[in-house]
Amino acid sequence: MEKYNTAEDAFNSLKIGTQFKKIHCRKLLKQVIEANWEWWPREPTCSSFDDVVRIFGPNELRFLSKSIRVGMTPDDKVVIFADVYGDPPDIISCREIVNKTKNNNINIEMFHKSYDELDFENGFRPPKTTKYYYHGYTQFYRGNLVGLIITP
Q: Any idea what DSSP says for residue 19?
């Protein structure tokens, strides 16, 4: 776990850039899904970016307990993460996915970036020039950014 003074510092350390290519993100996320295939009771549908993100959500893969966010770094790494309260199940789930995925020769790593929890109203909102997918609240306030970085 890395500790940051602010939510802004923790978010900026992810290096999410100003471009977001859905096709590129879908391709790398689909590789992770395929490496973790047996976790699903049925064959997952991965025909669109939204399908892929939904699989990572709390109802399917149960990857993280809060809304998923997906971004890209300037060097085309895909970052999939959530702002969470630091629940151990979120961290354990990330580790399990990394271990299973690395066994399939996919370059993936987990991260856990901690900052002091904020009131909802005072949460950090990234600049509008930062491009990433999110569903739910725009601000970060729960105290932990937990997720995966996938390198092409």
A: -
All structural domains of the chain with their residue ranges: 2-151
pLDDT of residue 35: 82
**Burial code of 136-151, b = ≥16 C-beta within 10 A, e = fewer?**
eeebbbbbbbbbbbbe
> Which residue has 């549908």 as its token pair?
45
Q: Which of 46, 44, 106, 47 is nearest to 77 (CA)?
A: 106
**Contact partners, residue 59, CB within 8 Å, separation at least 6:** none
- Give the predicted TM-score (pTM) of the model: 0.89
Please give the radius of gyration of the chain, using alpha carbons only, rounded to the nearest integer: 15
Pairing of strands 107-114, 2-3: parallel
Confidence of residue 79 (pLDDT cuts 50, 70, 90): very high
